[in-house]
Specification:
- With 75 residues, the chain is of the alpha+beta class.
- It has one domain: Double Stranded RNA Binding Domain (2-Layer Sandwich), CATH 3.30.160.
- The chain is built from 1 helix and 3 strands; from the N terminus they run βββα.
- A 3-stranded antiparallel sheet has the order 1-2-3, with helices on one face.
- Strand 1 and strand 2 form a beta hairpin.
- The longest helix is centred in the middle third of the chain and has 18 residues.
- The radius of gyration is 14 Å and the shape is globular.
Length: 75
């Protein structure tokens, strides 16, 4: 393992607000990796914890997709 293995990686996540008032984050490229909290500070903390747990327990440590952007569509 070289120095690059220990360098921080960036992950992209979506934040939504549920009907119950909680904020929910969903990490793109990491299936079933999400967190929930009442404040943004707590959500960020819990999202980091969720990512670390995912990476610790997942067999595949790589992000499955690369974030490209958001689009909206009217139906």
């Amino acid at each position: 393992m070289g120095k690059r293995d220990n360098m921080p990686k960036q992950y992209t996540f979506i934040v939504e607000k549920g009907k119950d008032g909680y904020l929910v984050s969903r990490v793109l490229g990491l299936p079933d990796c999400f967190a929930k909290a009442k404040s943004m500070d707590k959500l960020l903390e819990r999202t980091k914890e969720a990512i670390l747990l995912f990476l610790k327990t997942s067999k595949d440590k790589e992000v499955y997709s690369k974030f490209v952007g958001f689009q909206q569509i009217e139906v």
